[in-house]
Amino acid sequence: MSYQAKYDEGGRREADRVDAESYLQNLQRRIKSLELQKRNTETELVRLQRENRELRKELDRLRSPPLITAVVEDVLVDGRAVVKSSSGPNYVVNVSHFVNTNDIVVGSRVAMNQRTLSILEVLPFSRDQAVSSMEIVKRPAVSYKDIGGLDLQIAEIKETVELPLKHPELFERVGIEPPSGVLLYGPPGNGKTQLAKAVASETESTFIKVVGSEFVRKFIGEGARIVREVFQLAREKGPSIVFIDEIDAIGSRRIDSEVSGDREVHRTMMQLLSEMDGFDPSGNVKILAATNRPDILDPALLRPGRFDRLIEVPLPDKKGRVNVLTIHTRNMNLKNVELEDVAERSENASGADLKAICTEAGMFAIRESRDYIEEADFFSACNKVLGSYEEKDSESGLIYG
Ligand code: ATP
């Protein structure tokens, strides 16, 4: 082969080599991009599989039939249980193997299969909505200093409620039982609730307020159950003060009534009485009640061992009115105001009226673009707040209870 031919052959080979190299590089790039694509597809696959599993679970949940709730009434020796179903009747039912039999005790809430009625689940304890929404305050922000004109009542509350909670040993030493329950009575708005809150705060107790009418329920047995739950809650949160406002709603005198609603109210009261009877008076739960109508209360409520301490919370006298006014004007900017004169003008005013008078006096000052309150504002406020009662009273001749 001539030199020229050899030279051409070498050039061709070099060109082929370069082509082959660039082809190889292309292939490698393509492989890399395919690998990346594969990885992305795999991640997408895992995501879709997870979503699929969740959707299937959700579908199963939606397809599964609802369960019936029931309350266990008795546990039999053979492992079965007697339950009261939410639909009414009692059943003797089997317990599923998946349920821990130790969890099944009298009173526990369970879920049962609709067809076989066997217990499939033990449900967590639930408190009635009415009980959960009650006013429950740990150490309310009210002290004895915020209550005016009730020194005697405060002293009595201290002796009957505070002392047994703070120093139960005093009663043990003397060998007497402290009073079980204290009933505060008197016209509305004179500080009954405030007193109960102050004693809870002073004894660092939880304040649980229930209004008597909340116990009055539509279905038979519900009121009694709520009473039980309130007392159970009080024991759990102890030390605590249970304050039953407007106790006359359930505690009025029993008459031979044929109306089933009345009988249900009486049943609720019986539950309250039995809770009080079962109470240790030296324990860390104290019961206070309030009413505007002590005259209509059932004597069973007032007998010794129940609400055996009656404390009257009357309308404040002149000195009391000055005290209440002093409390409510503590943060007010007064100029030349003699609270004695205001007290003179506000005869028959309750504590709540006096508070309203102070607020109203402030409103008069604001209306006149002043940042201080004069005596005249208080006088106008007295006329406004107390005058509206006089009008109402003369229209209807109505007085409290
Ligand atoms: P009801 O019988 O209507 O439940 P009550 O006697 O429980 O009324 P409270 O709720 O204690 O009355 O008082 C209502 C408001 O009036 C309170 O917010 C409080 O500010 C004021 N008040 C009532 N009495 C006094 C008082 N003696 N000293 C200071 N403030 C008082």
Q: What does this entry look like structurally?
A:
With 401 residues, the chain is of the alpha/beta class. The protein folds into four domains: 63 residues; 56 residues, Beta Barrel (OB fold (Dihydrolipoamide Acetyltransferase, E2P)), CATH 2.40.50.140; 182 residues, 3-Layer(aba) Sandwich (Rossmann fold); 78 residues, Helicase, Ruva Protein, domain 3 (Orthogonal Bundle). The strands form two sheets. Strands 6-8-9-10-7-11 form a six-stranded mixed β-sheet, sandwiched between helices. 30% of the residues are buried. The structure holds adenosine-5'-triphosphate. The site of adenosine-5'-triphosphate has 19 residues, from α5, α10 and α12. Adenosine-5'-triphosphate (ATP) binds next to α5, α10 and α12.
